[in-house]
Amino acid sequence: MLGFILAIFNVIAHHSLIYTFNTENIMFQDEIPIVGKVHRVFGEQPTNYIQVRLSQVGGTHYGPIVQPLANLAIKNTHLKISSDMELRGVAKLRLFRGRKNLSGFDSELYAFKNQILFKGRISQFHVLAAEEENLYHRYKRFVWQTFGFLELNWFYYTLLTGDKSKIEHDEREVMRTLGLSHLMAISGLHIGIVFMITFWVGKLICWLALTLMKGHNAQRYHLRIFYVLFGLIIAFIYVYLSGMSVSAIRAYSMLLLGTLVYFIKKDMNKPRLLLLAASATLFIDPFVLLNVGWYFSFIAVCAIFMVVVQKRAATVKRMSWLIQLIKVQCYIGVLLGPLSIYIFNGLSLAGLFTNLVAIPLLSFVIFPFMLFGVFLASLVNINKVLEGFDSVFSWLLQSAIDVTGSNGWWNSGKIDLITLLFIYSVFIFFLVAPIRKLMWWPVVLYGIHRLTVVQPRWEIDVFDVGHGTSVLITSGGKALLYDLGAKYFDKYAIFEHVVQPYIQENGIELTHTILSHQDNDHIGGVDELYTFDRFSSLAEFHNGHTHTHCALKSVKLNSLSVETIWPKFDLGSKNNNSCVVKVSDGTFSFLLPGDIERRAELSLLKHYPVGQLRSTILLAPHHGSKTSSSEEFIRAVNPEHVIYSRSYYSPWRLPHPEVVTRYRDLGINQLDTAVSGHIKIRVFDNELMIIKARVSKGFWFFR
């Protein structure tokens, strides 16, 4: 009980001291003075996007130890901005708020973990001082100067600094497919290699010193302590220079505990050592539990410990290092497989084989090469030597890519949290001998759960896409997509990063896509849609083209009726020519009107009987704009629920207060993606279940 109370106190203390910042007196409506130091520069120079660690915002000052970060856009400038520059300027700030969907990258959680509190833009600024780079930044710059000209520069730079900013998307995908992504996160493998190399270097130094000091009695020196301390010091320096990541801190904690146990001669079993390391990591920062790398790291160490314990307990002759390595890889693959499927919706099939080569190669060749390369590069020019080694490593990586091809990664689809917990509970019951006979308990409980879960007839997913629209309607594994959302800076498409991952991880077949009209916030991802399905889903309603009105027709989506009812004729504007779609199962229905305005709404009332427009759920026309949602149209549709798809910081101040009042006065339940995030509606025989991402994926520290 005391430990539980201390844990709660530790969490509250960390949240209050490290993750909570005072914003009460900040005027977010106006431009306010700021002072801060550039923490990170995004993109190429001259940049227009930076991350600043703020020491002052308006009249609010932040202490020197814990300061919030702000992602800031700046006007085009010819001034080269670099890290550690201290800036004073005027900025328009707002609290960081990202899109919240039921799957995919959680930008708000990322911002919380990294203390990103604000985002905004700087209208004017000047440099107070370009402070001398600290040791960490000088080290990173030196590493890039040393390895930056090589083909695998991103690989060496990441391993030596822990900074993944040099890794491009294609390179990440290659490492993921090969099952080598874990090599890019500084962990026990890397810390152990550094410790062992420096341990033996220390031993060599002592041997040379004692050889030169002939006649001295070497036995009076406790040299093993020197070897270990030398290794621990260099390993800590590496942890610091690699960014103090969660996995690195965990590994170093275990290294410290292991050496301490060794020297005090205390007999401590492996599970207790692992538990102490976990406790130390959580004491330093309990919010590491939000980092999936923490779980991967500890499960992998558990797998290694299991092999070590079995090896010591075995009565058979000693296994070779290769058999041990294969066994470790098998254990890691089995134990991490379910977590990989839960987090990444798949796992690497090539990982078992590539790691058999990669881990020894990294341990005995690549890592020593990099460490000694950094050391020697500070003394002499070794570019030719580096190029020679790099060409060999590049050839090995390319050979692995050629052998595995596109078959290295298995897209398994999604499993839910209950299934994940069931799998690991079975593992625990099986591996712990005293309770192995009770392994049938989790099987029975999971079976009861599966039998009692009622599946919906169909589902509606209104994604949180900011200002724009993207709605997925699914029935029996097949789906219709209404609009694609926006595309920003001609690079970031909502369809590619939000909608497509959701479709793939849930094993959904996209049979139909309808593009309501030609505004960018509705069709921003057409290029990505073509890459995804070669426009096959556009065949039914758009004849495979993207710049046409939808065809007026009725089709079946399993048990659902999908009918396009507008535009019947051209009203002369993109908004009023939006494709209006009604989806119905005979009991519940959903009306999607795009961005139609009052003129199109009244035209619909003239061409269709009132009962034909009536729907249970309505997607608010034109995101809740004042020009839409006329009272006549709302009464004709007579919805129980209306959904606004819009951004939280809307420059158009949507939904308009008059529209909100109109729906409220008619007793209609109003849902808003800007407030609730991704809205999922599960349609059963006689009821609707509404799921809101900001509730189901919310944490107490976000409220």
Structure summary:
This protein is α+β, with helices and mostly antiparallel strands and 703 residues long.
3D structure, described in words:
The longest helix is centred in the middle third of the chain and has 27 residues, at 351-377. The chain has a 7-stranded mixed β-sheet with strand order 15-16-17-18-19-20-21. It has a 6-stranded mixed β-sheet with strand order 14-11-10-9-22-23. It has 25 helices and 23 strands. Helices cover 46% and strands 18% of the residues. Helix 6 packs across helix 8 and helix 8 packs across helix 9. One of its GO terms (cellular component) is plasma membrane. It is a multi-pass membrane protein. Keywords: Cell membrane, Membrane, Transmembrane, Transmembrane helix. Its main location: membrane.
Query: How would you classify the quaternary structure?
Result: single chain
Terminal CA distance reads: 27 Å
CATH topology of the domain at 458-702: Metallo-beta-lactamase, Chain A
CATH homologous superfamily heading of the domain at 458-702: Ribonuclease Z/Hydroxyacylglutathione hydrolase-like
Enumerate how many helices there are, as a single number: 25
Largest sheet: 7 strands, mixed
Weakly predicted, low-confidence segments: none
List how many beta strands DSSP finds.
23
Helix content: 40-55%
Q: Order of strands across the widest beta sheet? A: 15-16-17-18-19-20-21
What structural class do helix, strand and pairing data support?
Answer: alpha+beta
Shape category:
globular
Strand content: 15-25%
Radius of gyration: 30 Å
Domain Metallo-beta-lactamase: 465-641
Subcellular location: Cell membrane
InterPro entries: ComA-like_MBL (IPR035681), ComEC_N (IPR004477), Competence_ComEC/Rec2 (IPR004797), Competence_DNA_uptake (IPR052159), Metallo-B-lactamas (IPR001279), RibonucZ/Hydroxyglut_hydro (IPR036866)
Protein name: DNA internalization-related competence protein ComEC/Rec2
